[in-house]
Amino acid sequence: MSDSHYIHIGRHTVHPVWRLSSVSRFIATHLGAPVSVLGEQASQAARVFTDSWNKFLFRRFWWESISSRDVDLVIDSYENVVLRNRFRWTDSDREQAQGFTGEVIQGTFSPQATAMLTALFLRHTGKGLRIVTDMEEANKKEDGALICYGSSDSNFKTFELEAESGGVLCQFTFNDRGERGFRVGGNVHSIEKRDGVTYDKAIVLRLLTSQRGSGQCQVVCAGLSEWGSLAAVHYLVRNWKVLHKRFDGFGQRRDFCVLLEVPFGHCQEARELASAVWWHRNGRAK
């Protein structure tokens, strides 16, 4: 006889690993679908909340009435662009001006700027922009929004807004060498060349007006060249929420001007150099 011992395994005895596997299959079969549906619904609810919150912030940045009013994008007709360019360099060194590499014809990037701003407003308001030239009748209503593309040299409406604001935040002027520049914070910033790279300057300017309880948001995206103007639009589209948090905190709405520097040919690489802000009580211009 052998001393071997036999262990009887009944037909109902199941190995623990098999038992765990069966439980996992049961959970996957009966609970996987409901859990997946709940997860998708939670994700969708989060997207809806985020989208609604962004639309609320967008209305706050541009003024509440943009949802029901037209938003005008004012660009230059560029009919007299050659004459303007000649006038621009009358009192400056023409050879130095021609030495700037990457210079493009005024208005070249207007379609790109229009496309970026239109996509932005479609995403957050469901409406596009009304495109008008600076010589046409722009948004004269007491509310809504107005966006000017280009500096005072190329956009008469920009010139008009600068004159109405008194140049408190920014002035389009000349430096000591007779070159165009933006005066922000007491300093004049012009196009300059460093290490073989030409750097344009640009501004994003927001002005808030108020009449009889209604208000209009006026924004200027302007550069000293086309590179700067397009960079200003690109910066606004990507950073409006940051600007809102920065200048509209604690229930206050403020006029502001952000000065940017951008290398020619790289509008997405704009960086802030300086800023200026004008405070308003209760979010209304005095």
In short:
The chain has about 290 residues and is an alpha/beta fold.
Label the structural class.
Answer: alpha/beta
Instruction: Identify low-pLDDT runs.
Output: 81-102, 282-286
Radius of gyration: 29 Å
What is the total tally of β strands?
11
Write down the domain tally: 2
- Residue fraction in strands: 25-35%
Strand and helix order: HHEHHHEEHEEEEEEHEE
Q: Globular, elongated, flat, extended or rod-shaped: what is the shape? A: elongated
What profile does the largest beta sheet have? 8 strands, mixed
Proportion of residues in helical segments:
25-40%
Oligomer: single chain
General description of the model:
With 286 residues, this protein is an alpha/beta fold. The protein has two domains: 7-62; 64-283, no CATH class. Helix content is 37%, strand content 26%. It is built from seven helices and eleven strands. It has helices at residues 16-30, 32-62, 81-88, 94-98, 110-125, 156-165, 226-247; strands at 71-75, 130-133, 144-149, 171-174, 180-184, 187-190, 192-194, 197-211, 214-223, 255-263, 271-278. Strands 1, 2, 3, 7, 8, 9, 10 and 11 form an eight-stranded mixed β-sheet that branches. A hairpin with a 2-residue loop joins strand 8 and strand 9 (214-223). Helix 2 crosses helix 7 (226-247) and helix 5 (110-125) packs parallel to helix 7 (226-247). The radius of gyration is 29 Å and the shape is elongated. The N and C termini lie far apart (111 Å). Residues 81-102 and 282-286 have low confidence and may be disordered.
